[in-house]
Amino acid sequence: MAQLVPSVKEYRGTTVQVCGLWPFSSGASSPMIGVPLGRHEETQATVCCDPISWFQRARLISNPSAFILGKPGLGKSTLVRRMFLGLAAQGVNPLVLGDLKGEHVKAVEALGGQVIKLGRGVGYLNILDPGQAVEVAQLLEEHGHHEAATRVRADAHGRRLNMVVSLITISRNNPPTDQEQTILDRALRVLDDRFDGIPVLKDLLEVIVSAPDELRQVALDRGDMNVYLRETRALEATLLGLTGGGKLGEIFSQQTTNPMKRDRAVVFDVSSIDETETDLQAAVLLACWSYGFGTVNVANTLADAGLEPRRNYFVVLDELWRALRSGKGMVDRVDALTRLNRSVGVGQIMISHTMSDLLALPAEEDRMKARGFVERSGMVICGGLPASEMPLLTSAIPLSRQEQQKLISWQDPPAWDSRGLDIEPPGRGKFLIKVGGRPGIPVQIGLTSIEKNDGLNDTDTRWHAPAKTLMDQAAPSLPTEGGTL
Q: Which Gene3D superfamilies does the annotation name (predicted)?
């Protein structure tokens, strides 16, 4: 008999190693397939997780996608970086389509990837540039893949039309009319037939102004030029603002400065755009997403035809709420861009702060579609969230009362400390992985020495070396011996 039962040491090993310890062995409480993230918060077991591995190898989710929710400063970007670094080691190319803070640039550079800078006077992205679609379509036709070439051209046309409509929607805060969209569709086709080279928005505007017969037919002017001018006046004004430096600047009006490559990690660095230019940020994000998904489609088509090796991509869509709030109908545009499913070999992860950000849309149908982004995801990863979020979150994914309390406790600030020590919030680096109605897996992200020391996860670099304040500069120096102040 013992009054105090001693705690037994726990050891971890594979099934082959511990099979002789029966019945003193038990299975792990978390999956061991995927990128190692950290330790289970309760059992300290290793937690491995990423959307592609859980779909392709573990068969735990039905589609390779994830949605991350959490308050700022709790480590969402660190979690995403850990996932795409681990996937890059497995041969998956990470694509960060729009980095608003420049926090993924160092990691992509460390992988030997491509950094594409966009911003006012920094870099340009031509939304009418079909990318490699034209060359790839010709290559496919030369090898007898005529149907695949037709699909590549149709996809490139649809994405360019979608982007032009999206920019007009952001510029007006309302989508263009059905007739204006029909005119734009026909104008793009006329531009492809008559223009030699890669057109820009100014060329599209000139086609509409020149009033060719094809456009007059869809404008239903009945032979009256005044009717055509009246129907296209608002469209011309909006396009003129997009090419002449309106609130969206001239980022989309010139040729692409740095074309995207298909065989490596890529990040679109848009950190030079100011936080106050919300419309421009939303427009650039949509343009990056459209360009990136178009490139993925081209790579998959070439692989299907046996002309290139098969490549898998892990697409990161950060700050989703910025694009959704930029105008009515933007949810449909984002949905059309991001509907890549399991059949095309692409995993994607969407990042936002709270469910309120997704549901703070004026139209009820847009709010329902935005909630569908979370519901359709293969897994939902939650960081610290306020209590007010729980009714909205539980309407999309089931959460027990204990899981809700855990998420609420993770969003608390650190303890008060008058000594100015660097004390982390209690929820930093802690996430709850939810898949369907299964119990969530609470994990504490563990950083390696390289991640800690090389600054890959430091998003507060501008606070490390503050400049001298005016008080410091005005402070008098101490007098020397015999001197006076």
A: P-loop containing nucleotide triphosphate hydrolases
> How does the average pLDDT of the chain come out, rounded?
82
Topology of domain 27-125+259-416+423-452 in CATH is: Rossmann fold (3.40.50)
The 3 state secondary structure assigned to the chain is: CCCCCCCCCCCCCCHHHHHHHCCCCCCCCCCCCCCEEEEECCCCCEEECCHHHHHHCCCCCCCCEEEEECCCCCCHHHHHHHHHHHHHHCCCEEEEEEECCCCCHHHHHHCCCEEEECECCCECCCCCCCCCHHHHHHHHHHCCCHHHHHHHHHHHHHHHHHHHHHHHHHHHCCCCCHHHHHHHHHHHHHHHHHCCCCCCHHHHHHHHHHCCHHHHHHHCCCCCHHHHHHHHHHHHHHHHHHHCCCCCCCCCCCCCCCCCCCCCCEEEECCCCCCCCHHHHHHHHHHHHHHHHHHHHHHHHHHHCCCCCCCCEEEEECCHHHHHCCCCCHHHHHHHHHCCCHHHCEEEEEEECCHHHHHCCCCHHHHHHHHHHHHCCCEEEECCCCHHHHHHHHCCCCCCHHHHHHHHHHCCCCCCCCCCCCCCCCCCCEEEEECCCCCCEEEEECCCHHHHHCCCCCCCHHHCCCCCCHHHHHCCCCCCCCCCC
- The one-letter code for the residue type at 104 is H
Q: Where in the chain is the domain with CATH 3.40.50.300?
A: 27-125+259-416+423-452
More confident residue, 139 or 10: 139
β-partners of residue 313 are 93, 346
Is a pLDDT exceeding 80 seen at residue 223? yes
> Residue 416: what pLDDT?
67
Report in angstroms the alpha-carbon separations of 362 from 79, 357, 368, 375: 31, 12, 11, 20
Read off the pLDDT of residues 258-281 as tens digits, 9 standing for 90 and up: 989 988 999 999 888 888 888 888
- Once rounded to an integer, what is the mean pLDDT over residues 17-26? 75
The pLDDT assigned to 249 comes to 67
Selected residue with higher pLDDT from 111 and 469: 111
- State residue 419's pLDDT score: 60
pTM: 0.82
pLDDT number for residue 269: 92
How far is CA 133 from each of CA 142, 159, 268, 380, 423, rounded to the nearest angstrom? 14, 11, 20, 34, 51
Task: Note the pLDDT of residue 326.
Answer: 62
The pLDDT of residue 426? 83
Q: 313-347, pLDDT tens digit by residue?
A: 999 988 777 777 765 666 776 776 556 545 567 88
The stretch 212-237 carries a mean pLDDT of: 88
